[in-house]
Structure formats: C-alpha cells, structure tokens
Amino acid sequence: MNTAAPQRGFQTLFKNRNFLLLWLAQLISMTILNASNFAIIILIEEITGSTTLIGLAIIAFSIPAVIIGAPAGVFVDHRNKRRVLFYSNILRAIATFGFVISLLINRNELITVFLLTFLISSIGQFFTPAEGASIPLLVDEEELTSALSLFNITFMLSQAIGFIVLAPLILSLLPTFTIGTITIFPAEVLYALIAVLYLVSALLISLIPSKAFIERKRERDEQAGTNAIGALQNVWNEVREGWSFIRHNSQLFLAVVQLSFAGVLLLVIGELATPLVTRLFNLPASLMAIVFAPAGVGLVVGSIIMPRILQRISKERAIFIGSLVLAGTIVLLPLSYLLGHYMDKQGLNSKLIYLGAVPFFMFIAGIAIDFINIPAQTAIQESTPEWIKGRVLALQLMLYNAFSIPILLFIGGIADTFGIDKVIYLLSVTILVFGFWGRFYEHRHRGQSPKSDLLEEKARLSEPERVKS
After folding, report:
1. Which domains does the chain have, with CATH numbers?
2. Concatenated DSSP letters for 110-157?
3. Could you give the CA distance from residue 408 to residue 412 in angstroms, rounded to a whole number?
4. What is the pLDDT of residues 239-258, one digit of tens each?
5. What is the Cα–Cα distance from 290 to 359, expressed in whole angstroms?
6. Res 197 pLDDT > 90
7. Residue 272: what pLDDT?
8. In sequence order, what DSSP letters do the residues of 373-433 get, joined into one string?
C-alpha cells in the first residue's frame, strides 16, 4: 500500500498561477506541434503522393531526438529553465515563419521543407526536457502526480485538437487565394498561425517570474551554470554521467524503460489503426475514428483517476496491472474479428462487434496505458534530483525515439508479411512479457540503494549544505 501523502486535486493546481501559465504554454505548443505534424504529411502527400517521402518527413521530425536529445538535456541542466522555454518557442516561431516564406517562394522545394522540419524539431528537443524539469519547481511534492496527470491529459487533448480539429479544419475549409502574384494555400496560413501561437506560448512563459524557476543548487552546479561553454565542451562526459545515473539507479532505469515502452506502444497502435479497421474488420477508413477514438477517451479518463489510484496501490503494481490488462485487451482485437467472421456466416450483423465491443476494448486499453505511463512518469520525477533532471528526461526521449523510428518505418511491412492479426498477437505477448519482466526486475532490485560513484560524489558535494541547514 502506498503511504504517500494524499494527492491534491486539479483545482489546487489551477489556483497556482505559475503552473497554470506553464500548462497553457504546453497546451498551445503541443497542439500546434501536432497540427504541424499533420500538415507536413498532408503537404508531402499533395505535392508528391509518395509514401517514402512521407516516411522521410517523419524521420526528419523524429531523428533530432536521437541525435541531439541527450546533449540538449545537458544544456538544459546548466541553464535557467525559464530562458530555455522562452527562447525555444521564439526560435521555433522564427523557423516556422521561414517555413511559410519557403512555401510561398517554391512549395515544391522539399529539401528546404525537410531541413526546416528538422530544425524546428531540433529546437523542440530543448523545450521538452526543460518543461519536464520545470514541473517539480512550480508545484509542491504532494501535487506532483496530479500535475503529471494533468500534463498527460493535455498531451492527449493536444493530439486530438491538433490532428482532428485545428489542422484538418484549416486545410479543408480555407480557400486558396492570390495576393498580387503570390498564391497562398491553406498550408501557408496554417503555418503562419502556428508561428504566431509559438510567440503566444513564449509570452506565457515570460509571465512566470524568474524566481519561480530557482533550483536548489549545489556548489558544483553553480560553477557549471556560470560556465555553460565549458559544460558543452564536456557534453559527452555529461551524457555518460546522465546515463550512468540512470543505469545505477534501478528504480529510475526501470521507469525510463517503462515510459519509453508505453510511448512506443502508442505509436504502434496508431500505426496499426488504419489496416486493422480496413483489412481485418473490413470497415471503411472513415469509421476508424469511431473504433479508435475511445482509446483517446480512455487515456484522458485514466489520467484523471490515476492520482487517486496511486494513493491506494504502489506505482510498480499499477504498471504490472496495466500491462496485464493492456495485453488482454489487445489480444481481443483479432479475436473480435474471428467472432465477427463467425457472425457473418450465421447471417448476423458483425458491425455490432466492430462498432460496439471493439471501441469498448480500446477504451479499456487507453486506461491501461495510463496505468503504465503516469506511474512511470511519476517515478522518473521522484527518482531524479534537479541537477540532472534535464539529462534524464532527454535520454528517455532519445531512447523512445531511437526505438520508434524503425517501428514507424517497418511496422507496415511486417504486418503485410505476417498478417495484421499475427502482429497483434505478437504485440500482446510482448506486452505480457514486458509486464512480468518489470515485476521481476523490481523484485530483484527492491531495497537496493544506488551505488554509483556519481551519487556518492553528489552526496559529498551536498554535505556542506546539510551542515548549514
């Protein structure tokens, strides 16, 4: 049983002005990020009709996390989080305005489109760990799980607003018009709006007082913070330091792996959504939202209830339960097809299964993913001190993206080769094995304290502060 202090609700968080400003900045930034992702795919499809080039666009947006994600985390650890958040939004706004200008000059010039996509994503690698590291600075310790749940809800809502509302509405409803000799397409209007909203996000960050981001610094961190150039020169050593910290802290290592696994799962489910509906269930693609939208609803509901659940059970048990439930609901999808196929033979309407039972299974799957995602996020925040939080969060993102890129590229081919149902069975077994592995790893390392020289060194450095206090 978890003996932590009772978690405060969302109402308390919304009364925290500084947290509210950070949350609004995240909501805007993530929404326009998802709208931009949708727009680049549609733009490449309109210009070329090439799935390969769409894949290259996805790579251009994903690979910066693998290449510079960890160094970005080092930079964040040595800089004021407020400045990183502010300037990353300003730079993304400038780059997005450049995107608009590039499209106005020659919208068929894809090299520039790919380069600017890579640049905007690269800047975002600094924003994400700075944002994650800022949350514990703006809320009390007992509010942390609720704050992470709220940010997780926002992440899901931003996907829905960006992918389903903002980008599709602008791209489909706005007309193409001409000003002088310049033809302006809806995509250009969308990217101009995205640039403006990045500036709004930067404004929200600027309204948070600098003192709210003051960390409990140690002597070595203060020296490093005043010598950022020297820190960047030793970036590889600091990345290794971050990885060593993760690897020698068994609870943190497990949480990083579990959070990355949950993220990859979301990508796999998203990748398989269309072929599952069209190939396996033989439904039109227009019904995909009806089948899979409940998963998004489940993610939101799970984010709301998780703070209360984590008051009653441990994070480790919640993750294990989530893994078991998710594996069970995933395997029910191809089994639903078999039942629907049997109903068709009996002259019954199989859509009762595909549009009734399957959406319910996806709703439960969404909640189950939160049972993995939010406890893992909370464990990472609780197990990571402020002096290295940026590196840890960036390394987690790097690990997640390193695995997600090949999955995004090859999952369709794997499904084509072995069949969509076989892939889903394999996915269910993988989730089940992963859940039991996490349970085994947690039991094996229970009660073990981190033994790395890194932690001992930091403990010595913090000793004078404890004496002073």
Report:
1. 11-213 (1.20.1250.20), 245-447 (1.20.1250.20)
2. HHHHHHHHHHHHHHHHHHHHHHHHHHHHHS-GGGHHHHHHHHHHHHHH
3. 8
4. 677 778 888 888 888 888 88
5. 7
6. yes
7. 72
8. HHHHHHHHHHHS-GGGHHHHHHHHHHHHHHHHHHHHHHHHHHHHHH-HHHHHHHHHHHHHH
Query: By C-alpha distance, which of 380, 394, 378, 374 is closest to 153?
Result: 374
Find all residues with CB under 8 Å of 82, minimum gap 6, and list them. Answer: 134, 205, 208, 210, 212, 213
User: Are the C-beta atoms of residues 385 and 254 closer than 8 Å to each other?
Assistant: no
Q: How far apart are CA 389 and CA 174, in angstroms?
A: 43
Q: At what angle do helices 420-444 and 389-418 cross, to 10 degrees?
A: 150
Distance of CA 299 to CAs 167, 266, 306, 354, 366, Å?
22, 11, 10, 20, 4
Phi/psi class of residue 208: alpha, beta or left (left: φ > 0; alpha: ψ in -120 to 50)?
beta
- How far CA 418 is from CA of 415, 421, 422, 426, in Å, comes to 5, 8, 6, 10
> pLDDT, tens digit, for every residue of 334-366?
888 888 777 877 777 777 777 788 888 888 988
208: its two tokens: 């948070």
**What is the amino acid identity at position 466?**
R
Kindly give, in sequence order, each residue whose CB lies less than 8 Å from that of residue 365, ignoring residues fewer than 6 positions away.
269, 295, 298, 325, 326, 329, 330
Token code pair at residue 25: 């900045």
Q: Which helix (H) or strand (E) holds 354?
A: none
> How far does Cα 224 stand from its chain's mean position?
29
**Per-residue b or e along 314-323, where b marks 16 or more CB atoms closer than 10 Å to that residue's CB:** ebbbbbbbbb
| 88-91 own/partner pairs: CB under 8 Å, 24+ apart | 88/123, 88/124, 88/126, 88/127, 88/130, 89/25, 89/29, 89/127, 89/198, 89/199, 89/201, 89/202, 89/205, 90/198, 90/199, 90/202, 91/123
**Residue linked to tokens 């690698």:** 125
Q: How far apart are the first and last CA of the chain?
A: 33
- Residues with Cβ within 8 Å of residue 174, at least 6 apart in sequence: 186, 189, 190
